[in-house]
Amino acid sequence: MKLSPATKSFIGKTVDISTFAIQWGFVPFVVYLGFKKGAEPMPNGQILPLSAMSLLWG
Predict the structure, then answer these.
(1) Considering the entire predicted model, what is its pTM?
(2) pLDDT along the chain (58 residues), means of 10
(3) Which regions of this chain are Mitochondrial intermembrane-facing, per the record's topological domains?
C-alpha cells in the first residue's frame, strides 16, 4: 500500500505529538493519581498528610 507524502507527513507529525505528550505527561499524571488516592496508612495506623510540600521535603 502506497502512502502519499501528505499522509506520511501527517502520520509522522501525529507520532511526534503523541511521543511528546506521553513523555511530558507521564509524571504529572502519576502525581495526580497519587494525590487523588491519598497516602496509605503507616504500619502503626497513622496517615501522613499528602501535600506538595511533603512531596518535596518528605
Answers:
(1) 0.55
(2) 92 96 91 77 73 68
(3) 36-58
Q: Dump the DSSP string for 7-56.
A: HHHHHHHHHHHHHHHHHHHHHHHHHHHHHHH-PPPPTTS------HHHHH
Which residues have a Cβ under 8 Å from the Cβ of 48 and sit 6 or more positions away?
Answer: 39, 42, 54
Instruction: Provide the grid cell at 24.
Output: 511530558
Three cell numbers at 27?
509524571
Domain ranges of the chain: 5-57
Pair 53, 47: CB distance under 8 Å: no
